[in-house]
């Protein structure tokens, strides 16, 4: 007497029918492959009737269901198109529940059509890259840090070379005098590119719906400044020009601009304060050591 229960036998017959249905759809139009698959399934199920272990029988059923699911979801029948060795069209005979998102008009090809896809010249990404390459604008911090930036325009054809003298070694009085004698760059409106855009951030309609954000670009150097500090467009234009002059001053008068001198003097003040603290600490240590020697005597 067979040790396989009636319910497992019923599941086996159901799996057999499911395999035949999946094969009929997947291999439709190819009688040779379809008949060969059917013969293989019949032979396997005839052999499986002799199985007496429920565990082995359950494993065989699971394998059959996996094969049926694979046929439904992963096997697509293709019909070769005349005059083409690469592309084929999906048959439109698949039912909706087995189409897996495929529809009429979809074409299949080899992987090279994806790996070596041609770049679209009019794509948005290509357009952005092209615009970025055509705009040799430098960041303000980067432009101030690199010396190879083109010279500024101060009403002359070129600027004098940066000072070779080490301004850090000058006294405070001499440094301030050199700062006061420096040539402050002047803005030429022909060298400016000014645009107005809508602002961002908090502020309501006065910021987000009015073009009060000023973008100012100095064409000879590529330095860009933006300003939306106030709600007034005219005030923002004045502030933006002041910011641009300050950055041009730092670039032309390296070490002598108002900000550079302020930083230098502050650094010196902290250094002198630290030196005084160190001298005081050494003096206290010397007094303490002498006091310890007197006590020992």
Distance between the termini: 114 Å
Tertiary shape: elongated
- Could you tell me the radius of gyration in angstroms? 41 Å
What order do the strands of the largest sheet run in, or round the barrel if closed?
1-2-3
Number of helices: 10
Question: How would you describe the overall organization of this protein?
Answer:
The structure is a single chain. With 297 residues, this protein is mainly α. Among the domains are: 6-75; 140-260, Double Stranded RNA Binding Domain, CATH 3.30.160. Helices cover 52% and strands 8% of the residues. The chain has helices at residues 6-26, 31-48, 54-74, 112-115, 124-134, 140-145, 172-180, 205-208, 233-252, 258-296; strands at 79-80, 88-89, 107-108, 192-197, 213-218, 223-227. It has a three-stranded antiparallel sheet with strand order 1-2-3, with no helix packed on it. Strands 4-5-6 form a three-stranded antiparallel sheet, with helices on one face. Strand 5 (213-218) and strand 6 form a beta hairpin. Helix 1 packs antiparallel against helix 2 and helix 1 runs parallel beside helix 3. The chain is elongated and about 110 Å long. 13% of the residues are buried.
């Amino acid at each position: 007497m067979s040790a396989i229960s009636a319910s497992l036998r019923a599941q086996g017959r159901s799996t057999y029918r499911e395999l035949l249905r999946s094969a009929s759809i997947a291999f439709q139009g190819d009688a040779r492959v379809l008949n060969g698959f059917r013969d293989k399934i019949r032979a396997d199920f005839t052999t499986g009737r002799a199985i007496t272990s429920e565990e082995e029988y359950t494993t065989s059923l699971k394998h059959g269901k996996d094969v049926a699911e694979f046929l439904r979801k992963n096997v697509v029948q293709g019909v070769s198109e005349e005059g083409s060795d690469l592309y084929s069209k999906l048959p439109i005979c698949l039912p909706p529940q087995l189409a897996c998102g495929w529809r009429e008009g979809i074409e299949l090809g080899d992987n090279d059509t994806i790996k070596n896809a041609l770049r679209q010249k009019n794509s948005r990404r290509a357009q952005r890259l092209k615009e970025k390459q055509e705009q040799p604008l430098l960041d303000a911090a980067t432009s101030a840090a690199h010396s190879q930036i083109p010279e500024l325009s101060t009403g002359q054809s070129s600027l004098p070379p940066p000072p070779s003298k080490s301004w850090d070694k000058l006294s405070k009085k001499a440094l301030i005098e050199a700062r006061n004698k420096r040539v402050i760059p002047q803005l030429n409106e022909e060298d400016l590119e000014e645009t107005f855009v809508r602002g961002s951030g908090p502020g309501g309609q006065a910021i987000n719906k009015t073009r009060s954000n000023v973008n100012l670009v100095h064409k000879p150097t590529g330095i860009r400044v933006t300003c939306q500090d106030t709600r007034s467009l005219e005030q923002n234009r004045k502030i933006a020009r002041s910011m641009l002059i300050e950055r041009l001053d730092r670039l032309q008068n390296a070490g002598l601009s108002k900000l550079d001198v302020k930083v230098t003097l502050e650094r010196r003040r902290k250094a002198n304060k630290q030196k005084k603290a160190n001298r005081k600490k050494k003096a206290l240590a010397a007094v303490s050591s002498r006091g310890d020697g007197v006590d020992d005597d």
